[in-house]
């Protein structure tokens, strides 16, 4: 029994899988992922640069957008090392502690993004339902406190899972199906009792994603109620148009996240590449699309981009 219950210290590394079932398309898939990384990093960096340089964008809505862009950059950089190592350089081994660290940051940033999207929905609610008090409700100090609270909440929620995993014995082949470390993937490998890990994971999903999504939905119910009270149809559309970018950001974040959760929990019989692709969509698509959506749907950012590129051509 002592030999079977190997202490965690004997587990030194994990093997990250790429897409061996798509070996003939591996180069194309790698090129696609690198392109998505480039778009995500350049797009979010450009959003941050524009907001920093343009004084008219120093408002709560754009402060939250800055937080979203910083968070999306974090998501990209947290997965980039292992994706490059496993798919470009064919070096799939990752140290145990490094894997736990990457797992923490991936999920921490996901929970933080959920909190930022909730804060952005509150911003839209105040701007539309109580515009006269917008500047007094969303002061710079309160925006900063909200950002700090979101980060602390995510840290407190995501600090226990790596510790809970580290206490378990790993006696199976330590092969992860993704080119990065995710909690649902890692929790399959211990040969000890993972009930606490599973229960904690479900409780965190419900308390964070569940509550955040319900509050976002509630804010839009109140926004829609307020918009319908506007007499002019043109004004209604103009008001709702200020929410379009945020609505898209919410959809492209929560829908893939829900699909990943469902596949890992209930799709045991699905082919192995299904959860892999769902996780890639979940981690790659929102950071790539968010700056594109906000660049297209936000007039001030669109104008600044036009000025930058127009001047550069001159």
TrEMBL record:
One example of a Gene Ontology biological process annotation: cellular response to lipid
CC per GO annotation: plasma membrane
Chief location category: membrane
G-protein coupled receptors family 1 profile domain segment(s): 43-294
Origin superkingdom: Eukaryota
Transmembrane segments: 28-51, 63-84, 104-122, 143-160, 204-231, 243-265, 277-296
Sequence similarity: Belongs to the G-protein coupled receptor 1 family.
UniProt membrane topology term: Multi-pass membrane protein
GO function terms (MF aspect): G protein-coupled receptor activity; olfactory receptor activity
The entry's keywords: Cell membrane, G-protein coupled receptor, Membrane, Olfaction, Receptor, Sensory transduction, Transducer, Transmembrane, Transmembrane helix
Localization of this protein: Cell membrane; Membrane
Protein name: Olfactory receptor
Cross-referenced Pfam families: 7tm_4
